Amino acid sequence: AQSVSQHNHHVILSEAASLELGCNYSYGGTVNLFWYVQYPGQHLQLLLKYFSGDPLVKGIKGFEAEFIKSKFSFNLRKPSVQWSDTAEYFCAVSSNNAGNMLTFGGGTRLMVKP
Amino acid sequence: DVKVTQSSRYLVKRTGEKVFLECVQDMDHENMFWYRQDPGLGLRLIYFSYDVKMKEKGDIPEGYSVSREKKERFSLILESASTNQTSMYLCASDAWATEAFFGQGTRLTVV
Fold first, then answer.
1. Which residues are bridge partners to A58 per DSSP?
2. Which residues, in sequence order, are bridge partners of residue A54?
3. CB–CB of B99 and A106 under 8 A?
4. What is the rounded CA–CA span in Å between residue A22 and residue B44?
5. Residues of chain A whose C-beta is under 8 A from some C-beta in B?
6. What residues form DSSP beta bridges with B78?
7. In whole angstroms, what is the distance from residue B17 CA to residue B88 CA?
8. Chain B residue closest in CA terms to A44
9. Average pLDDT of chain A to the nearest whole number
10. What is the pLDDT of residues B46-80, one digit of tens each?
C-alpha cells in the first residue's frame, strides 16, 4: 500500500539549532509533495510544496525542503529554529498513480526551547 | 475569503446516532477529502472523492460512508456513531498540482 513515513514523532531543539525532519513515501509515478504545519490550536497551513522543477524548494518562515527522487524522500530543513516554530509538522504526498489521493504522514511534533 | 467550510465546529452525539458532517468548498476543486486527526496518529484518510458521485476508500473507511451529489459538497456519514469515533474531523479540497485547503475542523464527541 502507498504510504508516507515521518521518522521522528517528537523532536526537541534549543533556539538557533538546525532542524531536519525526514519524510519518505512509497508511491510511484508523478508525485506532488507538501509540508504542512499546525501551530497549537490552529488550522493546518501550507509551508511549502513541490510539483516539478528545482528539487530544492523554499517555503515560508525560512523553511526549505529537498526532493530526492532516488530516495523517495522530501526532507524539511531550517538552519536556525525559533521558539515560534513549536508546532506539529506533516508531510503529504499525492500521486497520479494513486488517483490523486492526498496522504499524510503521521506528523512530527517539534518543541523549541527558548 | 473562506474556501472550505465545515458545518459544525463542535458536535456531541450519543452512541448509535446517525451523524452527518457537511463540507462545502468554493474553489471548484475536483478532489475532496475527509480525514480524522488523533493525537500521535496524524491525519488518516477516511474517504476521498475525485468527482461527483465518485468515491474511494481511504485508510480507515470502516464505520463511515460519504456522499458527493454536487461538486462543491462532500458529506461524511457515521451510520451508527461509536465512542471510538470521537475525534477531530477535517475536510479538504484540492485539484491536481495545487495545495489542499482545509476546513476549520469538526470536533466530534460520541458519548
1. A64
2. none
3. no
4. 19
5. 6, 9, 32, 34, 43-44, 46, 49, 51, 90, 92, 94, 96, 99-107
6. B19, B64
7. 18
8. B102
9. 92
10. 999 999 999 999 989 999 999 999 999 999 999 99
φ and ψ at residue A51, rounded to 5 degrees? -115, -45
* Per-residue model confidence as pLDDT tens digits over A4-34: 999 888 999 999 999 999 999 997 788 899 9
Question: Strand A108-113 to strand A10-14: parallel, antiparallel, or no bridges (unpaired)?
Answer: parallel
> What is the C-alpha to C-alpha distance for residues B34 and A64, in angstroms, rounded to an integer?
28
- Gyration radius from chain A CA atoms: 14
Question: Does residue B90 surpass a pLDDT of 90?
Answer: yes
In 3D space, the residue among B40, B41, B23 whose CA is nearest the CA of residue B90 turns out to be: B23
| In contact, A23 and A2? CB cutoff 8 Å | no
- pLDDT surpassing 70 at residue B1: no
All cell numbers assigned to A81: 529554529
CB neighbour burial string for A62-73, b if at least 16 within 10 angstroms, e if fewer: ebbbbbeeeebb
Query: Cβ contacts (< 8 Å) between A102 and chain B: which residues?
Result: 31, 33, 45, 48, 92, 94, 100
